[in-house]
Amino acid sequence: MLSIKNLHASVEDKEILKGINLEIKAGEVHAIMGPNGAGKSTLSSIIAGNETYEVTAGEILLENEDISELAPEERAHKGVFLSFQYPVEIPGVSVTNFMKTAINESRKARGQEDMPANEMLKLIREKSELLEIDRKFLSRSLNEGFSGGEKKRNEIFQMAMLEPKLAILDETDSGLDIDALRIVANGVNKLKNEKNAVLVITHYQRLLDYIIPDFVHVLMDGKIVKSGDASLALELEEKGYDWIKAEIQ
Amino acid sequence: MSKYTEDDLKVELENKEYEYGFYTELESETFPIGLNEDIVRAISKKKNEPEWMTDWRLQAFAAWKEMEEPEWANVNYTKPDFQAIAYYSAPKKSDPNKTLDDVDAELLEMYKKLGISLDEQKKMNNIAMDIVVDSVSVATTFKKTLGEKGIIFCPISEAIQEHPELVKKYLGTIVPQKDNFYAALNSAVFSDGSFCYIPKGVRCPMELSTYFRINQGGTGQFERTLVIADEGSYVSYLEGCTAPSRDENQLHAAVVELIALDDAEIKYSTVQNWYPGNKEGKGGVFNFVTKRGLCEKNAKISWTQVETGSAVTWKYPSCVLKGDNSIGEFYSIAVTNNFQQADTGTKMIHLGKNTRSTIISKGISAGKSQNSYRGLVQISKNADNARNFSQCDSLLMGNNCGAHTFPYIESKNTSAKIEHEATTSKIGEDQVFYCNQRGIPTEKAIALIVNGFSKEVLNKLPMEFAVEAQKLLEISLEGSVG
């Protein structure tokens, strides 16, 4: 599904990623953990195509196709989805209208007609039920005045609507109380199947109680320094990151 | 990288041609350039006007000669040479008595290019339409249907002939001949425009619409619109404008007067898309317009405008809230791109008790344009419990444009409640990236953000106009981002 090879990236001449290698196969859930400033969010932004960062070396392959030169919307059309850590507000644009535009733009890119209105409504109903979203919520302006939990739930709702091949969840657990966390995690688990893949980026192990990863990677100072299974997350929770630092030195 | 950036969009927009910039070869009759008493008389004679009308024009002309162009607006331009303009131009084959079927084939072709098929308009949209090309009104549809309700909707030249008592009673009562430089000029030389009268208690069953087009080069357009809503009546009126692309500046100085008698309501919507000039700021229409409405008791006037065109705009649709409990509203979207300049806003004059006004202004500036909101809220001594709410929002694209707000508030009554809110924002890269990540390309993302920003005003437009206005916003800003 996703194959990252020797990825180097920098912002304003400061190198942030220093040679990332990562293989994610269809049907797998991977988690990337690491201390603040390790480059976790940079990695997710770069996969999604944010041009604030400059890729200086390496490649990003999605289903064996190099996507590192593609515009962010082209990557989205190919099935990359990023659940933002800080979703932005777009005043005056309702959640429904935004989703309608997003879905039809993707369809257009694939040479399909706009989705018929009744089909769209049905899809919206189905997916909002999945995430226990109140219908009134859908006519509100995108993220405007949303609580932290509402914003994150809305991100996963969008993921459900767009049905991506690769979903990157960037600190989706931050700002969520335990009930919201459970709803969001449930949503992700229901959307997961053997044809797609999920990359969870998180600071804490909490979310991984609900979304069980097949692989856990530790990102430190721009490199993946250790990989393991779900038990690695528990170990990190217990011992912190210092022991790994010591181990790699 | 292959990514389509805001800069690309900017370039594309700047190079995007004005879609309505065609010129139609019509045989036309144009007066010699220049303005003097003889020209004023000649226009009046051409229209076969009664003496009182000729005198009225001459009074206006006499006043105009003594007046000077206003200079207080936040705009810079080379003043037009008023002696270098032709004050009357008409498609030659015009004959007021003919039906739509006799309309010049080339003229009809032009309407088609403008996206107006009269037939379709008739059948589908339930919109009665008057079309003014250069100086004369060429077609009014739906006259018969409206006539059955006693509604008069016709070119003003015809109203002067057929309904002189109404015209005489109301013309110039809201915008007097001497009101300002451009209003005086208009009063002297106006050659056509629309007239509308809704009888007592009648709810006009369809949207009334006027379409203005400047076609001939070297001419000015001076149309005059007079709308009278008698007691307890209701009318919704739409106005649209386009002009061919020309290197020279063309002058458009219109006057619109609205009269809402007791318990009447007038909704007046404008989509203004005059040629804005090219990307170097050459050419374009000077849009110097005076629009004002009077509300009697319990009456309501709503102005809604979407201003995307013109090189320079100077326009303040206003409400005089004379009657107790009357309501004035102003909803505006003004878009400026490249070198466009707009100084627009409203005046709400509260005279009666319990009068209320609402002002929602959305300014969108791109390129090297300057966009100003100028508004006056005036509460007079006797206007007990008057209320006003004003909201002025500006959206900036790129670093070379400007947004300005000049709100004036004058209150002589301590019971008044006046609120003013203002915001200025920029389209953020993070907003665009968020949209991109969901599969929405930059150009579409900007249209989405701009439409969201303008939504409160777009919602005020009649349905069929709202769609057109939304498209127009996209076109005006295509490539203007950055």
Could you walk me through the main structural features you see in this protein, from its secondary elements to its overall organization?
- Chain B: InterPro entries: Fe-S_cluster_assembly_SufBD (IPR055346), SUF_FeS_clus_asmbl_SufB (IPR010231), SUF_FeS_clus_asmbl_SufBD_core (IPR000825), SUF_FeS_clus_asmbl_SufBD_sf (IPR037284), SufBD_N (IPR045595).
- Chain B: It holds the Pfam family SufBD_N.
- Chain B: Belongs to the iron-sulfur cluster assembly SufBD family.
- The complex is a heterodimer of chains A (249) and B (482).
- With 249 residues, chain A is of the alpha/beta class.
- Chain A has one domain: Rossmann fold, CATH 3.40.50.
- Chain A is 36% helix and 29% strand.
- Chain A contains 8 helices and 12 strands.
- In chain A, strands 6-9-10-3-11-12 form a 6-stranded mixed β-sheet, with helices on both faces. A 4-stranded antiparallel β-sheet of chain A has the order 2-1-4-5, with helices on one face.
- In chain A, helix 3 runs parallel beside helix 5 and helix 5 runs parallel beside helix 6.
- The longest helix of chain A has 15 residues.
- Chain A is globular.
- Chain A starts with a strand and ends with a helix.
- The mean pLDDT of chain A is 91.
- Chain B is α/β, with parallel strands linked by helices and 482 residues long.
- Chain B is 25% helix and 34% strand.
- In chain B, strands 5, 6, 8, 10, 11, 13, 15, 16, 18, 20 and 22 form an 11-stranded mixed β-sheet that branches. Chain B has a 10-stranded mixed β-sheet with strand order 4-3-7-9-12-14-17-19-21-23.
- In chain B, strand 3 and strand 4 form a beta hairpin.
- In chain B, helix 10 packs across helix 11.
- Chain B is globular and about 65 Å long.
- At the A-B interface, helix 2, strand 6, strand 7 and helix 3 of A face helix 10 and helix 11 of B.
